[in-house]
Amino acid sequence: MPEKKPVLMQGNEACAEGAISAGVRFYAGYPITPSTEVAEHMARRLPELGGVFIQMEDEIAGMAAIIGASIGGKRAITATSGPGFSLKQENIGYAIMAEIPCVIVNVQRMGPSTGVPTAPSQGDVMQARWGTHGDHPIIAFSPASVYETYYLTIAAVNLSQKLRQPVIMLLDEVIGHMREKVLIPDTGKLMVEKSSDNVPADWKPYDEKGLTPLVPFGFGHYYHVTGLFHDQYGFPSGDPEVVKRALDRLHDKLEKYRDEIVLTNYVGHKEPRVAFVTYGCSVRSARAVVKKAYWQNRWPVGLLSLQTVWPFPGREVEALARQADVIIVPELNRGQLVREVERYSRGQAEVVPVNRYDGEMITPDQLMEVLGRWLP
Amino acid sequence: MLVDDLNREREMIISGHNACPGCGAALAVRYLTRALGPNLAIVLTASCWSIIAGAPPLTALKCPILHCPFPSAGSVGSGLKRGLEAKGKGDTTVVVLAGDGGTFDIGLQALSGAAQRNEDIIFVCYDNEAYMNTGMQTSSATPFGARTNTAPYPLFKEGRKKDIMQIMAAHGIPYAATATVAFPDDMEAKLKKAQSITGFRFIHVLSPCPPGWGSESADTVHLSRLAVQTGFFPLYEIHNGVDWKMTWMTDKSRLPLSAYLDRQRRFKQMDKEKIVALQEELDDEWYFLMNKVGPADRC
User: Which residues of B fall below an 8 Å CB-CB distance to A?
Assistant: First the structure.
């Protein structure tokens, strides 16, 4: 891929630019710290690209408008932080049920409630998974750098289109506000298939046979979109068989495309005794430790960073647990994803949480101290 | 004896608050607490005042403050008043303090609900015409033509400023009034009148914001006065949604709008056509207001 010269970018800007590179031309949102820069960047960029920027009257409206825009044929995104993410939940559930592609950026800050608006946190991991009611599937990415933010946003937009599934970008205040180098590739190669290309004549919005692309309203097909359980034509149904099939359908598509959705990255010793499993800004502290322990001292230490937090990369963690004796899970919360790590380790490795929730990052020194319990 | 000494005992805002220099909202709340205190409880929704009021254990106000989530000011205020009444403390004045976002936009639903139920609270909107706490983003209170960070140059705020007073009048509430910091006597009189009335009362206060509007911090009171003199922000009150009355009017004709716009950088890139359009919009609103007020109540 031919790459342009490196650009210094803020995480929130990289998120906005990534979305633009992936063909997003619609933004609706509401100002909230620490995500406001996404909106402000979109307000500057979208009008010059012929796109639409709308400042909505509240958080619910921001989410609802991107659902409308998506059915109207535009790739759409919104950005918010904790309190706004809470307000958006009902509409996120609707988009999951009606299979409407959209991307929701949540730049996490300390909660609950107003919390500390300018302090980093990873407290919304479980909210991203279970925030909206019902037994739904979800995709959530958590980038660990500005560069990753750019590329994961592109992946989020494309996956969302392909699977007709809302995707959550779980940034944190550190990643959102830091500035780093990003290599911006030639655009045009970053968009996957347009959702409405090559639609068969017998297209059904929720085809029983499997995934179908979204055809926007006004493109030759009349159909029904609802948050009720529905049959393959989109019409509401309370038939137990239809209901079960519809819910299975939502989960099956994520299972089928798991390899495209679940993104992880392992660095360090091939046969680690102690491994870190983490995501978002906490990866940065863990990487500093691996650099010192493995690259400098050749200790058997490794780091599995999770770009995808939902669906949880269970297989990858399970494989790691078979090799490592100890898995350390640093998180900026009181321990959320560590439960999943424990679940998939199946007792094969000792899982040790390292938590910090005072509005500061976990430091490499702090992790080094924990590591010292098992290694010299 | 200085006026300041006379007021010192009534003063409920303490120096060292977190407002920017020249903050209109800080002045507005100073007058508000003077007029309504000391038996006062303030419900505060997310806005600049969430910061101005101070971070624990410090506080800038000598009364209890209930910070509440952004969309819920009207509802939390309703609950607080009814709770106090149930406990026999109904004599406490409950004031809901919200910015323009918490009133015009995200707070409108809760505000409308409380107004319709005629809850016994005073809802004060200090309107700095954008989301200033997050750094100057457009709200539906932003006037046509202004530049904000979500409508950056060459863009500008399109569409009219939402007429919140008409919305409140349509609810038929006992009392609604506009006020601004250049006219403290007028504001205090209105607040005192509001306090003497039972039911839902709404006060719309224009509060200049030097960093957001791009004005000099020493200019706040002057701008506030110009807003009234140009007819940009007329001072009036409405009883029961039908009885409109001007409380301040120039003897001569209104000043041209440019006197007000020229002192603010947010209007700097506005071309002549847009200024004319804004002036026309204003003239329409003025005409509408004069019709509502009627010749006898033009003050």
Answer: 46, 50, 67, 69-71, 104-106, 108, 131, 134-135, 137-140, 149-152, 155
Q: How many domains does chain B have?
A: 1
pLDDT given for residue A1 in this prediction? 47
pLDDT digits (tens, 9 = 90+) for A319-370: 999 999 999 999 999 999 999 999 999 999 999 999 999 999 999 999 999 9
ipTM of the prediction: 0.89
Q: Do B137 and A53 touch (CB under 8 A)?
A: no
Instruction: Decide which of A199, A231, A261 is a domain's last residue.
Output: A261
Say whether both A295 and A151 belong to one domain. Answer: no
Domain CATH for B236: 3.40.50.970
* Assigned domain for A376 exists: no
Chain B residue numbers touching A43 (CB-CB < 8 A): 149-152, 155
- Per-residue pLDDT tens for A208-241? 888 888 888 888 888 999 999 999 999 999 999 9
Residue B250 has pLDDT above 80, yes or no: no
Chain A: give the shortest CA distance to residue B164, in Å.
14
Choosing from A222, A237, A261, the residue where a domain stops is: A261
Chain B residues within an 8 Å CB radius of A30? 106
Q: In 3D, which of B213, B223, B118, B107 has the Cα closest to residue B175?
A: B118
Q: In whole angstroms, what is the distance from residue B171 CA to residue A223 CA?
A: 40
Which of A30, A47, A83 is opposite residue B155, by nearest beta carbon?
A: A47
Comparing CA positions, the residue from B35, B36, B34, B27 lying closest to residue B12 is: B34
pTM (whole model) above 0.95: no
From the list A43, A59, A83, which residue is nearest B150 (CB)?
A43
User: Domain limits at A293?
Assistant: 263-371
The three state secondary structure string of chain B is CCHHHHHHCCCCECCCCCCCCCCHHHHHHHHHHHHHCCCEEEEEECCHHHHHCCCCCCCCECCCEEEECHHHHHHHHHHHHHHHHHCCCCCCEEEEEECCHHHHHCCHHHHHHHHHCCCCCEEEEEECCCECCCCCECCCCCCCCCCECCECCCCCCCCCCCCHHHHHHHCCCCEEEEEECCCHHHHHHHHHHHHHCCCCEEEEEECCCHHHHCCCHHHHHHHHHHHHHCCCCCCEEEECCCEEEECCCCCCCCCCCHHHHCCCHHHCCCCHHHHHHHHHHHHHHHHHHHHHHCHHHCC
Within a 13 Å sphere around the CA of A277, how many CA atoms are in the beta-carbon half?
34
User: Which residues on chain A place their C-beta less than 8 Å from a C-beta of chain B?
Assistant: 30-33, 36, 39-40, 43-44, 47, 53, 55, 57-59, 83, 87, 113-114
